[in-house]
Amino acid sequence: MALERVSSNKAFGGDLIKFKFKSDSLGGLDANFNVYLPPEAKQTSVPVLIYLAGLTCTEDTGAQKGGFLRDASAEGIAIIFPDTSPRGAGIDGEDADWDFGTGAGFYLDATASKWSKYYNMYSHITAELPEVIKESGLPIDWSKKSIFGHSMGGHGALTIYLESLKTNSPFLSASAFAPISNPTKAPWGEKAFKGYLSGGLEEAKSKYDATEAITKAKGPLKILVDSGTSDNFYKQKQLLPENLIAAAKSAGHSEADVNIRIRDGYDHSYYFISTFAPEHIQYHAKILKA
Q1: 151-177 b/e with 16+ CB inside 10 Å = b?
Q2: What is the total count of domains within the chain?
Q3: Active-site entry in 151, 173, 175, 227
Q4: Which pLDDT tens digits describe the chain residue by residue (290 residues)?
Q5: Which residues form the active site (predicted)?
């Protein structure tokens, strides 16, 4: 799966490069992603963060609006920005709703037959994309990897991190901005899981719900979460960070291991994300470079 270089932009002494390739996980469709390489990457392999964007977003959203690149450059860390879903599968109903189908892959592997050929973002993120990047020779040290994301991408980051702890190649830390923390009890998650998964909500609980997964996770964990009180989706009970807080506490995880902060007056936007972006980059950098 050869990478095709699409574009490149200089930023903070490093390079933001867009690539595409034919993705087996996404049914042979083109997969786009951006990678930011800090100045150190010219001399040596560097640690890596994967950023998962939210509903309706693309591989460009976090790279252009997140405010991550300056601090990634200062810390000598690469950031990979994948897309949020396959594009152009042509499945009936794929573009009927903004919160399901195109732009709304939910970072899972679909098991419902209608979606299972193309909608496999979990495998794309955790297996295919790292392997393609390794084969390309890009200077990334995959033994030092962490993951973060926003909203739907926050859900993805938390669940992928927690699931990775069961493997021989875990992510070292996870963080999230306004994640869908308990998706099997939130309208967005219910819609996605009943559509993509043949086993619906019961199938999702075992792998795709951070609140469920954290009760079974073995510590110590390395999780940082920020949500805002003026977030309309928080008010609509889509995010449910209080459920994640309660589950982590009941499982005996300390606040140092699972640090969930409710920020007064902040909303769901990239103004919120960019405000706390430096803290998230620095949080991961301390762990990745320990």
Answers
A1: bbbbbbbbbbbbbbbeeeeebbbbbbb
A2: 1
A3: 151
A4: 689 999 999 999 999 999 999 999 999 999 999 999 999 999 999 999 999 999 999 999 999 999 999 999 999 999 999 999 999 999 999 999 999 999 999 999 999 999 999 999 999 999 999 999 999 999 999 999 999 999 999 999 999 999 999 999 999 999 999 999 999 999 999 999 999 999 999 999 989 999 999 999 998 999 999 999 999 999 999 999 999 999 999 999 999 999 999 999 999 999 999 999 999 999 999 999 99
A5: 151 (charge relay system), 231 (charge relay system), 268 (charge relay system)
231 part of the active site? yes
Instruction: Report which residue type is found at 274.
Output: S
| Cα 166 to Cα 28, 104, 144, 208, distances in angstroms | 29, 26, 17, 14
Torsion angle in degrees (nearest 10) through CA of 182, 65, 56, 85: -80
Pick the catalytic residue: 25, 73, 231, 284? 231
Strands (E) across 118-247 are located at: 140-150, 174-177, 223-228
Cα–Cα distances in angstroms (integers) from residue 78 to residues 74, 216, 232, 255, in the given order: 11, 31, 32, 28
Range of the domain at 151: 4-288
Q: Is 124 a catalytic residue?
A: no
Query: What token pair was written down for 193?
Result: 């899981």
